[in-house]
Amino acid sequence: MNKPVVLITGALTGIGRATAVAFAKDGARLVVSGRREAEGKALEAELRRLGAEAAFIPADVRRDDEVSNLVDKTVARFGRLDVAVNNAGTEGQVGPITDQTAESYAATFDTNVLGVILSMKHEVRVMRGQGSGSIVNISSTYGHEGAAEASVYVGSKHAVECITNLVGREIA
Predict the structure, then answer these.
(1) Residues catalogued as catalytic
(2) Which terminus of the chain is more solvent-facing, meaning fewer CB atoms within 10 Å of its CB: N or C?
């Protein structure tokens, strides 16, 4: 039986971590990624204790070279990429629009939107070459609903949902 190769960004906590554990229990070969080395190595060890073939590769999804390296190292290690779960994200600065700054906007959009774009760019490159693959971009209910004092975060999640839809059409 062929075990799928799964790459998860933002895997060190919350939804990303739970997703990694679920895939490990299903026997997938995993690459988990995030920015914190100690937490990443701890997760790698936990996944291996569950019987999964797993590796932690540090990457900041806001940096094209790091995302390219992450995807390339995944393929070098396992020979392919079957599933990518793009989960890295941030809530950013919560508060009214009058409290937002160019820096708070950039911090949120660079992680939530640019991170998804760069991840898909490199994942699609590999998946097209191998003729298959699935990409899951994690958004939020705020991606199609609003929330008071979360305009920048909501805008970033709207963008993730729109870009996901359009890239899906582009590569179908």
Answers:
(1) 153
(2) N
Q: List pLDDT tens digits, range 162-172.
A: 999 999 999 98
Question: Looking at 19-28, 64-73, 134-143, 159-168, which range is the least confident one?
Answer: 134-143
**Residues 154, 146: Cα–Cα separation, whole Å:** 6
Torsion of CA 17, 169, 5, 50, to 10 degrees: 30
> ∠ at Cα 120 (156, 130), nearest 5°?
165
pLDDT, one tens digit per residue, over 26-47 is: 999 999 999 999 999 999 999 9
pTM: 0.96
d(CA 73, CA 145): 37
